[in-house]
Amino acid sequence: MPLNTFPENLSQNKELSIRIVSPEFGHISSEMAVQYGSAQRLPYYFFLFVLRGNSQEVIDGKTIEVGEHELFFALPHQLRQLPTTGHSADYYKLGFDDECLSRLPKKFPFLLNPLNRQKISFPPDAALRLRNTFKILNELLRTADNDPELILAYLNSLLTEINAAYYALHKKHTAAGLDKFLGFKLFVEDNLTDQPAITEIADKLALSTDCLYRIVKQHSGVSPKEFITDRLIMEARRRMYNNQNTSVKELAFELGFNDPSYFSRLFKKVTGKTIAAFYRDLSL
Fold this sequence. Notes:
Arc Repressor Mutant, subunit A; 2 domains; HTH-like; Jelly Rolls; Homeodomain-like_sf; four-stranded antiparallel β-sheet; five-stranded antiparallel β-sheet; Helix-turn-helix domain-containing protein; alpha+beta
């Protein structure tokens, strides 16, 4: 059973771990906002749909501009910095955790973000459907004891629409290839700090190493080894942000590196910064 990782005081329904925010509803108090600070490692799925205006999101150190009829989404464990500027003119924000997701009747592959896209653009007709579904959820979550099954039905509809839009521009990807890539990505997440060998992953997925290389390259733009390295360095950056007192040696061992010096060189190669420089930037 998935763990409930949604902060209890944020949920807007007695039986579901879910919260929606719109310009006129759902904002937390300034006192509560202070508790979360200027950035947080997300314990839940986060969505921002801009109806009018624009917004700027910073996720894992990357800035993403979100405009009209665009949706930004972030996944559990990603590091999200809170916007320093005002919100867009009209928008919906939505958060829910894996426990809530587990109660839906189907799976949504886009939530693994296999194509490494965190912003989706919607044509007018799809944007209208999305807006209407967000609006209904916004109304349902105004009352804490509303029927959870009704809320889940609209959440399922919302995620179905988003999933279709996510893949709309990538129909060239074959279902089989995408399925294997999702398997690769899941295996990497589950075994990240063990730093599994590419041959081991290929065996688990019943693929040759050449076939695995082609599939990962097609969907991510990098080789399997580069994918794992990038993910390890991203994890290092997240952990450094959460605990700025961690030493290079401790961090290296936590991530499965036996040689802290090699880890330091790899970090600089991938990020362009030394670990010391990254820590200095965090303290500014």
